Every structure is written in structure tokens, then in C-alpha cells.
Amino acid sequence: SLREKLIKIGAKVVRHARYAVFQMAEVAVPRELFEKILRLIDGLRRRPAPA
């Protein structure tokens, strides 16, 4: 899950009223893992309703 991945790399998501901030510790994260995390985060976005 996204939460498990964030814990493994020392990151957290900070939620505010209308947005969330992805804070990550300064660590070397394998590119594949970083890309997977970004895809998971992108999947959390609301998609616009079809017109």
C-alpha cells in the first residue's frame, strides 16, 4: 500500500484544507520505488467528471 511505501522510505503526507503535501526524508530511494509511489499518489487525485 502507499502508506507502507511511505513508511519504508521515511516520508509522510501532510493534509491541509484543500491539498496534501508529500514530505520525504533525504534518502536515496530506488527509481522504481519512487515512480511507483508517484503513480499511487496520482491515483488518489479526483478525476474531472465527464461533461
Textual characterization of the structure:
- The protein has 51 residues and is an alpha+beta fold.
- It has one domain.
- Helices cover 41% and strands 20% of the residues.
- It is built from two helices and two strands.
- Strands 1-2 form a two-stranded antiparallel sheet.
- A hairpin with a 4-residue loop joins strand 1 and strand 2.
- It is globular, with a radius of gyration of 13 Å.
- The N and C termini lie far apart (32 Å).
Describe the structure concisely.
The chain is of the alpha+beta class and 51 residues long.
Helix proportion? 40-55%
Ends apart, CA distance between termini: 32 Å
The main sheet comes to: 2 strands, antiparallel
Content-based structural category: alpha+beta
Shape: globular
Strand order of the largest sheet: 1-2
> How many whole angstroms does the radius of gyration measure?
13 Å
Q: What's the average pLDDT?
A: 70
Question: What's the structural domain tally?
Answer: 1
Q: Helix count?
A: 2
**Unreliable spans:** none
- Number of β-strand runs: 2
The helix/strand order is: HEEH
The share of residues in extended strands comes to 15-25%
